[in-house]
From TrEMBL:
Residues 31-370 form the Beta-lactamase-related domain. It comes from the Eukaryota. This is Penicillin-binding protein. Belongs to the peptidase S12 family. InterPro entries: AmpC-like (IPR050491), Beta-lactam-related (IPR001466), Beta-lactam/transpept-like (IPR012338). It comes from Pochonia chlamydosporia 170.
């Protein structure tokens, strides 16, 4: 295959006209979503068919995107991790069914079944049944800061609660890939970045892909989409190198490199003996059903989602937050049934999407440099899939606009609900001031009385960079709800679950002793008060 971005193959006129129309729709989707730049590549019948680069990688300095522009690819990283482990399996260092405890003896989960039976395939397919959402809030809140060191991985993992019985379902669980990255590190003894380079990237000639942003050229600046459609330049790029989530979402790459990657996977499906990749059929197989019941194929492989078109896609992206599954627009039509294997990626400042269509040796690759109003990379990918195969009649520009409006409404509705709950009382705030410690002893919350307003200053991990206003709501409950644009400017992932913003305080004998926080909107964690900060006066930004 020749996937050189500068050697695009001639296009049949009907496909060419549809792809050119899709190019114009990219700018409309980006404008509606607050995305300054996007890069797209299309492979069809095993050859690079089309590339398109929209807008700017650096809006302020008017640096245009091109096919060599590097973007954060978020969870597209997961497929690379699966491919690296496949090389280790092929070399005989482990098997897909090796128990994790044999590779990582620190694993000692509260559920002994998981400790004893959890395998490599389990952690790569999100079927272990553990809930780690609350811990995500302890590790990351915003502004690009990682709040816990990766050395605390097992202190957290070993005590995650059970969401469903082991192998009894599917739930997206990034912590499994944290273990997978550590497996690669331990087995090779070379560290994840070097091992991935030697096992996958270098053999494929992928020179603009890596975890170390400083070693890459032409990295797009990160932005966030505001309510009016403007792109806000984030002050800090989120980098996962040497953190929990390096293996889950830490890679940066370009569409030029990702055409090589997609081409190699498609090659391996039809010509496995000639490929540097190994066990691709196993990686792309159905390992866990997603969001049952479904009569059609909807499952997870290892770093990939399998879907039968026509079907509902975008299942792990932010667009799922604004429509129920049954309301999601169908991609494809009944006259063109086909298999689509895809994944989505998001990190603060970037959305990405890659889709494979094995039957026609096709791929659609989309990279963007904004955590947009809605998942613009998803809409752009659907637009080009529609154009490539001449399927369905959905207007993805209108859907992108509608999704953006719905997201803003979710934040507005949350703010309205909060105000309806407020009782107007003002308790003595100094009695709530102090340091509160989570039961893991890893995470602290400092509260101090502000010198300028009748509010508390909330600092996660005691950091000035992680300061938010905490306001009294009602009956011992305080809230720190953020508006849409405030959340985006702080470099945060979208979160409209109100429970994530509520602290419920407990008073014993007239003294504030603790608060509970449902950081994932589900289970409440307890934070015990261990000291006072009554003398601390801070000004909330």
């Amino acid at each position: 295959m020749n996937h050189n971005a500068q050697d695009t193959q001639p296009e049949p006129n009907d496909i060419a006209s549809r792809l050119q129309k899709a190019n114009t729709q990219v700018s409309q989707i980006c404008q509606a979503s607050g995305v300054p730049g996007a890069s797209i590549a299309i492979i069809h019948k095993g050859k690079l068919l089309h590339t398109y680069n929209h807008g700017y990688s650096d809006l302020e300095n008017q640096i245009k995107t091109d096919s060599n522009t590097a973007y954060g690819i978020g969870s597209l990283t997961k497929a690379f991790i699966a491919a690296a482990i496949a090389k280790l399996v092929h070399a005989g260092h482990l098997t897909w069914h090796t128990p994790i405890k044999d590779l990582l003896p620190e694993l000692n989960q509260d559920d002994s079944i998981i400790t004893n039976l959890l395998t490599v395939t389990d952690i790569l397919s999100h079927r272990c049944g553990l809930a780690g959402g609350a811990a995500m809030s302890f590790v990351f809140q915003g502004d690009g800061d990682m709040l816990l060191p990766k050395e605390s991985l097992f202190t957290l993992f070993n005590h995650f609660p059970q969401l469903f019985p082991f192998r009894g379902g599917w739930s997206y669980f990034v912590w499994g890939y944290a273990l997978a990255g550590l497996v690669i590190d331990r087995v090779t003894g070379k560290g994840l970045a070097q091992a991935l380079r030697e096992l996958v990237l270098s053999p494929l000639g992928m020179t603009s892909t890596g975890f170390d942003v400083d070693s890459l050229e032409g990295v797009a600046e990160p932005y966030a989409g505001l309510a009016d459609g403007t792109a806000f330049h984030l002050s800090k790029r989120q980098v996962f190198r040497d953190t929990f989530f390096e293996a889950s979402g830490g890679l940066f790459s370009s569409v030029k490199d990702l055409t090589t990657w997609a081409g190699a996977i498609l090659d391996c499906i039809s010509r496995p003996d000639e490929s540097v990749l190994k066990d691709v059929p196993y990686i792309l197989s159905n390992h866990a059903a997603i969001m049952n019941p479904s009569l059609n194929e909807r499952s997870y492989g290892l770093g990939w989602i399998r879907t039968q078109l026509p079907g509902r896609v975008g299942l792990i992206g932010d667009n799922m937050d604004v429509w129920t599954l049954s309301e999601q627009p169908l991609l494809g039509d009944e006259h063109h049934p086909m298999q689509m294997i895809y994944h989505q990626g998001s990190t603060v400042g970037y959305y990405s999407h890659m889709a494979l269509f094995p039957a026609t040796e096709s791929a659609v690759i989309v990279l963007t440099n904004s955590i947009a109003l809605s998942d613009a990379a998803d809409w752009i990918s659907r637009t080009f899939t529609q154009a490539l195969f001449d399927i369905d009649s959905n207007d993805y520009v209108k859907l992108a606009m509608e999704a953006s409006k719905r997201y803003i409404s979710l934040f507005e509705n949350m703010a309205t609900e909060i105000e309806n709950m407020r009782d107007g009382k003002t308790p003595r705030l100094d009695t709530f001031a102090g340091r509160y410690v989570h039961s893991s002893q890893l995470f602290v919350v400092d509260l101090a009385v502000c010198d300028s307003r009748n509010k508390l200053a909330l600092r996660f991990q005691g950091r000035d960079s992680q300061e938010y206003e905490l306001r009294y709501l009602c009956e011992g409950v305080f809230e720190w709800v953020l508006g849409h644009d405030e959340s985006k400017r702080r470099g945060r992932y979208n979160s409209v679950e109100m429970g994530c913003y509520l602290f419920r305080f407990r008073v014993d004998g007239g003294r504030v002793v603790s608060f509970t926080w449902a950081a994932d909107g589900l289970r409440s964690d307890v934070f015990l008060k261990v000291g006072g900060l009554e003398d601390a006066a801070v000004a909330v930004r």
